[in-house]
Amino acid sequence: MCHNPQPVKFSRKSRLFSHKRLANVSMTSSGFTNLFLIVLALYTLVQLGLKWRHIHHVDRHRHAVPSEFAESITLAEHQKAASYTIAKSKLAMAMTLWDGLVLLGLTLGGGVGLLDGWCRSVFSPESPYWLVPMATLSTVTTLLSLPWSLLVLIGMKLFGGYASLDLFWHKYLSLGVLSGTALVFAVVLSTALFSMPWSLYSTFGLEQRFGFNKTTVKILTIDVLKSISLGWVFGIPLVTVIIWLMERMGAYWWVYAWAVWVIFGLLIMAIYPHFIAPIFNKFVPLEDVALKARIEGLLKRCGFSSNGVFVMDGSRRSAHSNAYFSGFGRNKRIVFYDTLIEKLSPEQIEAVLAHELGHYRRHHIIKRMVMLYGSAFVFMFVLGLLKQSAWFYEGLGVAQPSTAAALMLFMLVLPVFTFMLDPISSLLSRRHEFEADAYAASQSSAQALISGLVKLYRDNANTVTPDPLHSAVYDSHPPAAIRVAALKKIA
Ligand SMILES: [Zn+2]
To answer: Catalytic site residue 394?
Structure first.
């Protein structure tokens, strides 16, 4: 029986030569602290600077609608988009500063170390003997309905199940895995709590002010409860498995953990349209006969088979409109927000759908997945290296290394260190948008797509005069003027 949380073995002889060699990179913990502080300061300053530029650019252009949009967007609508963009950017600036402080608190301020200490003390050999089997049971019982769990509990009592469950945990798991899972949830929960006031303000303050918010405190509370339950049902098993692999699979744990993560991601994608999305929204098959016939014509032209065209009650939460695909293989679903159906003409809806089909036909979804999982493979390798390096923990304010602490520190600081890659992924995404637009123009009407897009820009109060540098770094979609110009060239 192993009761001790497994400490990370720095001296472990790694068979992976590259890891071993890289682990010898000379870095001191104070050196890493300084590096982290410098990169975080740059990350914060660059983000604030870009938002500041964006705000001033939008403000400078608020007095006149650009000539190419003069017929479709009124000055009042253009000015509303400017005010909305500026308000959102100011909020983003405040959140950048706040998130930086939270990150510092969790790392150098000792937050992760403190939470890890708590989790270890809860799951320690001194903790009550029933805690370990109860942790198992609580996971099992959430998956079973109440009558079944009562039967399970009685059965366990009668047949000495607690003891065998206890044995099972200690043979295959350890208290380290349990406290590690607890730490992951403690960190996720605390970051969620720290960001909650901001998301509440965003929904009930900012979005409300500009007339986009349709959600109520009741809907939001129910949404949060549903999300927590989903996180519990899917998150606990995943995190437990990942931490177990990290502790037990030797030098190549990161390959196994990566494989589990990929399989899990694909599984979620496969079940999302049928089991997860309906928990939050109602989906009804598209009823409009004329529109349906038009859409089926397009699908046939494009040689596309799907599991149906659905309308989602997006208007329950927000007046913003959208359309998307979900699932893969034969499970693909086309989903329109009810707000989109309301606002666009059948011709425009067809063109927007043709754009979405373009993403599919040009293999953008597969390409994005390969990129996502490919970069995850690299990040997992780097985590494998950092997990063995004392300077990584000490440099980020954790005195006692643990597997879960390595995982959480890595997840927390990763965005700061990879920020410089964001413009590349934005650029690729914008390139995909141009390709999908070109596809839509070839299968549907470029003119209808232009008018539909402009309507969406207008109704969603998206600015048509963004700062070019801000747009290059952040925007997954090309600025309206450039996008429309490209479409006009094809039309
Ligand atoms: Zn697109």
So the answer is: no
- Give the pair of three-digit tokens for residue 422: 């964001």
Catalytic, 437? Answer yes
CA of residue 308 to ligand 1 center, whole Å: 20
pLDDT tens track for 356-406:
999 989 999 899 999 999 999 999 999 999 999 999 999 999 999 999 999
Torsion sign across C-alpha atoms 165, 171, 176, 178: negative
**Residue 159 DSSP label:** T
Rounded Cα distance, 236 and 184, in Å: 9
Q: How many residues does the chain have?
A: 491
Produce one character per residue of 89-105: b if its CB has 16 or more CB atoms within 10 Å, e if not. bebbbebbeebbebbeb
Q: What CA–CA distance (Å, rounded) separates 268 from 284?
A: 21
pTM: 0.83
Q: What is the rounded distance in angstroms from the CA atom of residue 190 to the CA atom of residue 99? A: 12
- Ligand 1 centroid to 231 CA: how many Å? 29
211 backbone φψ class: left, alpha, beta (φ>0; ψ -120 to 50): left
Q: Which of 3, 2, 6, 121 is nearest to 402 (CA)?
A: 6
